[in-house]
Design brief:
The chain has 374 residues and is an alpha+beta fold. 25% of the residues lie in helices and 33% in strands. The chain folds into 3 domains: 81 residues, Acid Proteases (Cathepsin D, subunit A, domain 1, Beta Barrel); 139 residues, Cathepsin D, subunit A, domain 1, CATH 2.40.70.10; 97 residues, no CATH class. A 6-stranded mixed sheet has the order 7-8-11-21-12-20. Strands 5-4-22-23-6 form a 5-stranded antiparallel sheet. Strands 10-9-16-17 form a 4-stranded antiparallel sheet. The two termini are 42 Å apart.
């Protein structure tokens, strides 16, 4: 049934759809959600929709991000008494040789697909399923980036695992992933590396260091680019502002990298060498960084602290292998995504993480739970 041809449009990270709203009964498994409003897509621009083979998108986020104030299908399942519990759960099968690709259970969990107990954390913001996350570890060593806490969302619609470029660069360096060289970062290290180290050792507040050396202004919560000239002419304004933003961002990332190495009691020479290597291996703007398939056994674990518990990912779990034999290619499962404050930093724990950990979305108690998947 057409709902008056009311137009609709949704923009995703790598694509978009447009169409119009309709209303119909929707059958999901054994359930039938009555009078469900949905979008009939008439246009799907973007490489995601050209490459993927699926018939639609089943939005399972909160109503707060619903387009046109439409009631999501999960809400209707609950309101119409179709489920016993206000819970749905995911198991993603990472064994490509098996026919069953995974399982989503509406109204409960399948005990056959996890072991132990779930670790639950409360939803901190309704929209996506957002929660607080602790530090990220590489080879069991803390990066320090989330010492004060980070925000994360669990999202089955994201294939990889996305996080701030600062830490993704460190991870990709540790696993030997290729990247791109940044001369801006190299210039920061050359001109200010020693000064940043001195300021960190003098116990200056890390967040204020880049403003102290004149590359960022400081508003009390996060850095904002400032640069040498505070006023630029109209002709060059956009380009100059972009350069200032890049220099400020590069400085703030360099501070985190140096701080991480100081915690590991590295020498000044070792620290500067390490940071320069990171400048040579920034994540690709296209989001795909290759690794040598023969080095998987020597790659470190990458771990995430959630609810006080450490959740490990092994190389076999965070590296995507495409093809077989000599033609096989291995891709890092980590991509850079910088979400600025106040909404970020934000991590997206996509299928790379959810494939390892059975995930429960508990809307009745507003919490997300993770347990080892089997």
């Amino acid at each position: 049934m057409c709902d008056g041809w009311k137009p609709a449009e949704i923009h995703y990270g790598t694509g978009a759809i447009s169409g119009f709203f309709s209303v119909d009964n929707v059958k999901v498994g054994d359930f039938v959600a009555k009078d469900q409003e949905f979008i009939e897509a008439t246009r799907e621009p973007g490489i995601t929709f050209l490459a993927a083979k699926f018939d639609g998108i089943l939005g399972l986020g909160f109503r707060e991000i619903s387009v046109g104030d439409a009631v999501p299908v999960w809400y209707n399942m609950v309101e119409q008494g179709l489920v016993k519990e206000e819970v749905f759960s995911f198991w993603l099968n990472r064994n490509a040789d098996e026919e069953e690709g995974g399982e989503i259970v509406f109204g409960g969990v399948d005990p056959n697909h996890y072991r132990g107990k779930h670790t639950y954390v409360p939803v901190t913001k309704k929209g996506y399923w957002q929660f607080d996350m602790g530090d990220v570890l590489i080879d069991d060593k803390p990066t320090g980036h989330c010492d004060a806490g980070c925000s994360a969302i669990a999202d089955s619609g994201t294939s990889l695992l996305a996080g701030p470029m600062t830490v993704i660069t460190m991870i990709n360096h540790a696993i030997g992933a290729t990247g791109v060289v940044s001369q801006e970062f190299k210039s920061i290290v050359e001109q200010y590396g020693q000064t940043i180290m001195d300021l960190l050792l003098s116990e200056s507040q890390p967040k204020k260091i880049c403003s102290q050396i004149g590359l960022c202004s400081f508003d009390g919560t996060h850095g904002v680019s400032m640069g040498i000239e505070s006023v630029v002419d109209e002709k060059n304004g956009g380009r100059s502002a972009g350069l200032r933003d890049a220099m400020c961002s590069a400085c703030e990332m360099t501070v985190v990298w140096i701080q991480n190495q100081l915690r590991q009691n590295q020498t000044r020479h070792q620290i500067l060498n390490y940071v320069n290597e990171l400048c040579d291996q920034l994540p690709s703007p296209m989001g795909e960084s290759a690794v040598d398939c023969e080095n998987l056994s020597s790659m470190p674990s990458v771990s995430f602290t959630i609810g006080g518990k450490v959740f490990d990912l092994s190389p076999d779990e965070y590296i995507l292998k495409v093809g077989e034999g000599a033609a096989a290619q291995c891709i890092s499962g980590f991509i850079a995504l910088d979400v600025p404050p106040p909404h970020g930093p934000l991590w997206i724990l996509g299928d790379v993480f959810m494939g390892r950990y059975h995930t429960v979305f508990d809307s009745g108690n507003l919490r997300v739970g993770f347990a080892e998947a089997v």
